[in-house]
Amino acid sequence: MSFTKKIEVTKADDSRRSKRLRKTEFSLVQLKSTWKRRTGKCLSQNDKGRVSAAKLFESVTEHGHSWTVVSPIIFTYKVVQSQNLLDPSNDTLLSGHIRDLHQLEAFKSSAKPVKRFVVIDETVNNIYGSQVTKYFEARNVIYRILPLPTTEENKSMELVMKILEEVHRFGIDRRTEPIIAIGGGVCLDIVGLAASLYRRRTPYIRVPTTLLSYIDASVGAKTGVNFANCKNKLGSYIPPAAAFLDRSFIQTIPRRHISNGLAEMLKMALMKHKGLFELLETQGRFLLDSKFQSSNGLGDHKDAASVSTRVAIETMLEELAPNLWEDDLDRLVDFGHLISPELEMKVLPALLHGEAVNIDMSFMVYVSRERGFLTEEDTARVIHCMLQLELPVWHETCTLSLIRKSLCERLQHSGGLVRMPLPTGLGHADIFNDTSDETLTRAFEKWYKELSSSDHTIPETMTLNLSQHV
Ligand SMILES: NC(=O)c1ccc[n+]([C@@H]2O[C@H](COP(=O)([O-])OP(=O)(O)OC[C@H]3O[C@@H](n4cnc5c(N)ncnc54)[C@H](O)[C@@H]3O)[C@@H](O)[C@H]2O)c1
Ligand SMILES: [Zn+2]
User: Fold this and answer.
1) DSSP-based three-state secondary structure for 206
2) In terms of CATH, what superfamily is 255-462?
3) pLDDT tens, 45-57?
4) Which domain of life is it from (predicted)?
């Protein structure tokens, strides 16, 4: 009954639509302090430079007027690699986000004291807190530093509200006093969401302190917290005013968290950059041992850290910038993220994000091999590289039924297509919608047989042709 009614309404809508009398496209021109509509014909030479990129479309039907607003919104943000970020002689933290030269001059010559609200991960505060305080003291900044236990288990609206209350109490000018977040991906995601809510959009700055957040969480636009036991269910697509990256923070993160970040780097390598893959293959273990610190006098290897982080960020930005709001659902950066969200939340806190991503990638590499996109040798090279980076390549909770369930959910949330990124060679990839259940099953059986007992060592069957590469 209700279904029939729906059809009637639709028909009525259609007939109404067909009786449209007039549709006009307007540009918007600024005249002194007011905006006026102009049709294309009426735009004069004098209007140049004062025409908005926005448009108004007006329809007139026998039932009245309707307007459609098209208002392009541009986001501009900086990702800046910097050294000695906490050295008081370094301006980056206070003014590195200002792009306009006049504004920068005004900032430098202003007598008004600078004010900053800083949220810092509690562990990071224990290690770097005194340096942060010294920096703001030396620069005569009016500041408030809020250390918080920003762990994955605490990644919720509660911490967002806590930040908002403290920001409100401290008081900031939302145009000129960005909130600063210093910590790993969890801290940056929570603060980003709080900033995007405060006064509808307050600028914020990201200072990543883990490898994963350095190459991944800090370069894009996403903010978020977990909700209803689902990862990042609440969030926004509001990029920071700037991300300031200082690799020296990485030296104090635990080894396991270096591997964790290397997984996201390997993702970009497998999808887009053979050179990065080869670098990880040959220098990955060194990067892990040296914690991405170049200045440790290890000669030839010393550039691996700067090259690998730069390429990881460049390849990530290439994919993110044209698709900041993820409207295009075909995304190579989703590699390793089809099964892993379900797996990660199911075993939380047993697997770190990057570890779950790696298990997903390891399985997908077997799918690629099964489909004939990767040779036996390439597959062995990838798995060997993962093991060198001390990443898990298999997990008992990652069963065939969990894989099927995750892919079904993906179908529902991705417009009816699974959009499966798969490597089609080392450093090349494409998106596929035609992987059959038989292929998945065969890939799973081989994956299980070859890797379930791997126990962090390369299975004997795979070592045959590796010596020439590593
Ligand atoms: N917004 C995005 O685009 C994006 C992208 C990828 C991941 N993420 C999110 O990032 C999170 C994972 O980030 P993460 O791996 O950085 O985890 P994390 O923020 O939990 O940090 C890992 C651990 O390292 C500690 N730590 C941080 N910096 C340290 C330092 N310099 N020295 C010593 N200890 C330090 C933290 O206290 C924490 O215990 C996930 O919640 C994920 O959803 C977001
Ligand atoms: Zn990820």
Assistant:
1) strand
2) Dehydroquinate synthase-like - alpha domain (1.20.1090.10)
3) 777 668 999 999 9
4) Eukaryota
